[in-house]
Amino acid sequence: MKNNTEKSYITYFVYAFVSVWALMVVYNISVRSPLSVLLMGGLFCFYVHTGKKELPERRWPAAVSSAILTFVMLIVKGYDIIETYDSKLFKLGFLLIMTAGFLILFYHVFNLLCVVDGSLLFDKSEERREMKNLMLFSFLVCFVFYLPWFLFSFPGIFDPDPIGQIEQVLHLRPWSNHHPIAHTLLIALFYHIGGLFTDSINLRIGLYTFFQMCFFAFCASCVINTLYRVVKLKLAACMAVLAFYAAIPFMAVQSIIVCKDVIFAGIVMLFCCELTRIVYEGLPYGKNMIPKIIYFNILGILMSLFRSNGWYVFLLIAVVFIIVYLKEWKKIFFMILPVIVTVCIIKGPVMTAFGVEQPDLAEALHVPEQQIARVLYYHRDISPEDRAMLEELTDIGRVDELYCPWFADNIKELIRSGNPEILEQNKGAYFKLWLKLGLKYPVDYILAWKDLTENLIYPEGDYDIAVIEGVYKNSFGLSQHPVIAGKAAVKLRELMIKLGSYIPLYGFLWSMGSYTWMLLLTAAAMLSRKGHEKRLIILIPAAAIIATLFLAIPAARLFRYAYPYAVLLPFCACAFSEKE
Q1: Are 157 and 254 found together in one domain?
Q2: pLDDT digits (tens, 9 = 90+) for 214-246
Q3: Cα–Cα distance between 62 and 58 in angstroms, integer?
Q4: How do residues 473-512 score in pLDDT, each as one tens digit?
Q5: What backbone torsions phi and psi does residue 407 show, to the nearest 5 degrees?
Q6: Among 457, 489, 508, where does a domain finish?
Q7: Domain finish residue from 433, 457, 481
């Protein structure tokens, strides 16, 4: 027994040594730094502790999740490191060290996640006292926290996208589904309601912003109420979730940025609340069955119409529901088919009848466009036939001037300025060209994808969150008129936003990539716990949103793209509650 213990300690020592070496290489820590000794001791103790808790059923989820995160580390950090060495032997050596070190590290981090004691978070005893009006209380707290930001930025925060939507409302440009027409019509609704009382465009559009802020506060309160009453999260833990939604400044700022992402995020939150009820309580039945199915249909339709990737999220949910609840196919039929039929009718005949312009193909191909652009930017060898196809599409001579690794709109607009109809008419031929160049230059394709999605897949990143302010210039008189003003207000706002860049752990919540990592590890934890597999359904909307962004995100440094899945983080608590 003593020999076995000594062997395991030696193993954990080697694990810690390799992991520390990998961390030092990636984060440029000197081999003489005292931090290396602290890391070595800390990781050794950590591995000894988590190694004792390892269970066989956790091995494959731990291996898969650690492999994914290690791959991320290698493409985000590793490529630039190994490129600094001329020797192929050194390149291979450091690549192996980084791979082994991070596989071990993430594997044990996952094991630690799996031994979290759920009893600390949940209370399912019969003596549990229910807090009445928790939903109302949560809404009011969020409202009180958001209101000063709304008054400071009145009538809201507007970048070019909502300005274009308001121009549609004012009939200054044709109706378009480039930004979801459902969201544009919602803005129009409040604009016309405001018109019953005032002619001021600031007040009329400000009414919409106020609604959006209240809607998000309502959705946050629904999440808290669901976690408390359905998942049986303790009241103290629910207050932590409330603090997450109310007290972190970027939540307040996002709630008053007029964009489709905020409304879509709220709809997905409500949808996940229903998924949680279904997973924990079963499919609707009895006298309340029809109203619940109708409510599910409404949420599915709204989710599909308020963001283009919301449609794909619902389709994935539909597939999973059919597989998991096949025995109750009649209920599933009425929960899924009405949504699919309604959305297809609206997106097809209805929008066509009303002359609503649809987004072009270039809008959905940001990642492939960037990948081919990178090949052109670095002047890789391309056959005359392939180059002719690209030149027929647009002026590829301008790629050197316009290519930006983290911003895809430049190349998209370059395609639009050429002959985008050729792409529409020859999808198959251009797909083959994209595939051919990818097989020839796979590293360029991987790095182009990394440059565009890096902030989604890795927590560290150089981008600002919540600093956006003001109203983009426009021709119809919308402008900022703060109700709360003065140097003190400006400084306080600046301080609250800057804290996210200075406080450890808290700053992790200001990162797009951190939410991706936490959702991935939580999903793996669900798979590793017997009887919890069905709970993965709750995280599918977040996973589907992330997956669509991996394929079509237009800019790497805009937090609003990650916002709809970041707000779903509290549902990760479902991984740690005990099986009913």
Answers
A1: yes
A2: 999 999 999 999 999 999 999 999 999 999 999
A3: 6
A4: 999 999 999 999 888 999 999 999 999 888 999 999 999 9
A5: -135, 110
A6: 457
A7: 457
